[in-house]
Amino acid sequence: MTPQAAPSIRRYDLDWIRVAAFGLLILYHVGLVYGVYDWHVHSVHTFEWMREAVLVTNPWRLTLLFLVSGAALRFMTLRRTPREVARARFARLAPPLLFGAAVLVPIQSWIEARDKADWPGGLDGYLAWMQREFGWSGLADGVPVNHLWFVVYIAAYSAVAILLWRRAGLIDRLGDALERMLRGPRLLVVPILYLVAIRIALFPIFGLTNNLPFDWYNHALSLGAFLFGFAVVGRESIWRGFERWRWVAVGLAVVALPIMMLQVWHPGGRAFFGVPKAIVYGVDQWAVIAAILGFGSRWLRDRSSPVLTYLTEATFPLYLAHQTVLVVAVWIIRPARLPAGLEALSLIAATFLGSLLIYEIVRRIDPIRPLWGLKPRDGRPWPLDLAAWRGEGARFRRRRALLAVGVAAPVLALIVVLVASAAYPGFDNATQFLSELGGATARAPIIFNAGVFAAGVMAGLAGIGFGLALYALSGARAAGVVTAVVFVLAGAGLSLSTLYPWPDPRHMVINLGLGIQLAPLLLFWGLSSRRDLPGLKIFLAVTFAVMAVLTLFTKHLVFPGTVNPANVGWWERAYAIVLVCWVGVAAWVLERKLRPDAAHAASGVAASRPAE
Which of 443, 572, 566 is nearest to 510 (CA)? Predict the structure, then answer.
């Protein structure tokens, strides 16, 4: 399907609206700190009137953002195919969502747990919280995303819009239908009727959950707004209608807002099954949106500025950061018991300035820009340039990269053990096994378990690199396959063992890795035809011999009682150092050996090309 041959048009009014709406969102969240609704943390000051005050923006703010987001996606489709748009959306939304769920949201959740459930503080408390959240029981309850639910919904709605767009002419027909339906005053009346209808029919059943599979009122509202923006952004008659009816929309909103507040304040506002309340809510909701779109189109459509350019890029990182910054700011500032006004100003300043500071830092660090929703500055794919891996000499790059993982794995394992030991006061290296660093008696088992899990995955990848390197250097296909299998099993055993921390009997799945004791011999066998690696062969032979001796000691086959409960920890440390470190040394030597072969292959391909 070819993209539409339409010019790229920038609607600065939509940029202004988006920036302003996100700014209001920050103020809204500061307001919730003082409200009566359940939120993550609260001030010592609580105001009942916040129940009505939030209605100033609550009915329309997010609906407007979804509408503008749909319009923005439509502009992306003007010169791209559906596949290109889908890839761009994934690249923009997936890294921040994963990063936010793993890093930003747990900070909020931990502070909330400390505030409401007296969860322990300090590094130990935070690591224990992470262990609970991302352990089996925590993951079974789902991964909390807090304010990032908006990103989840934008991703889902983008997928829906792209699928509809793939149906030739469907979006155009939808736009035509909306254009006919919304002529004249119907631009105000028809959307209000729709909003009232779903408020009456769906809201009492589903409410607002921000849980994608069970949020059907929200989908009827927000997905409807998203697809509306996607379908009508290029329909000038509709935008002229917004401009024409903007003052009428303001009048409706001015009348509806105080009535809506009164209905929330007075118990009688829920009379007649809440139908009058739903009607007023729908009127206010669409009237404010229509007024904002009308005034924006009239006065801001062509008004760019350096401030807008800066804020347009900054908005997404600010959104990602602001709630975590706010929750931390409340936790720090609240003990001072400042007067409510001064405290609120302090929270607003801390949230805006803290979020801007984070943006200013991350936008200057290329490797982490996509984690905050920013495009790489050099335009190269992130995190890997896969196209480069399909070019000349790609197979050598892949092998060398896998061997580089083999070099890094022992380093990671050593760091993990040192950090986990430091987080385990009183850990006895003489009598305790390393597995206990991730067991029930450890204060922060997540350090050891997460690190060893990663090291196990890296060991499996390194084994594949060893196998490919053996085949490349000596053509030893059988030795390469067996070596790779041994490493993959060892890595699987290592990683799986962390899912069942000691003393769980299932922890013994780690025994899948016993075969790695033979890996030095397997490498020696695979390299036997090479005469230019005598040093590596001697190293592999010595490594195997040392591991064999240590194994005999622990099995009490030669010197019974030499290894005993008083020193078994030191035996394990010696065995682990030999078992882990030789992998890094061998991977480093083989990676260096592949370099001239890779250069030779690349030069050979270049030489075979005809002269231009």
Answer: 572
All residues at 6 or more sequence positions from 232 whose CB lies less than 8 Å from its CB, including other chains:
71, 175, 178, 179, 238
Q: For 527-541, write each residue's pLDDT tens digit.
A: 888 888 888 888 888
Q: What is the mean pLDDT of residues 368-373?
A: 92
CA 60 to CA 287: how far, in whole Å?
Answer: 9
Q: How far apart are CA 293 and CA 241, in angstroms?
A: 10
DSSP per position, 332-388? HHGGG---HHHHHHHHHHHHHHHHHHHHHHHTT-GGGGGGGT---TT---SS--GGG
Give the Cα-Cα-Cα angle 401, 404, 410 (nearest 5 degrees): 150
| Cα distance between residue 431 and residue 306, in whole Å | 64
Write the pLDDT tens digit of every residue in 573-589: 777 777 778 788 888 88
Query: Are the C-beta atoms of 155 and 94 separated by less than 8 Å?
Result: yes
Separation of alpha carbons 215 and 203, rounded Å: 9
Handedness of CA 161, 167, 172, 176 (dihedral sign): negative
Q: Give the single-character DSSP code of 439.
A: S
Length of the chain in residues, anyone?
612
The 3-state secondary structure of 17-79, one letter per residue: HHHHHHHHHHHHHHHHCCCCCCCCCCCCCCCCCHHHHHHHCCCCHHHHHHHHHHHHHHHHCCC
C-alpha span between 406 and 588 (Å, rounded) = 8
Angstrom distance (rounded) from CA 340 to CA 329: 14
Cα–Cα distance, 485 to 516 (Å, whole number): 10
pTM of the model: 0.69
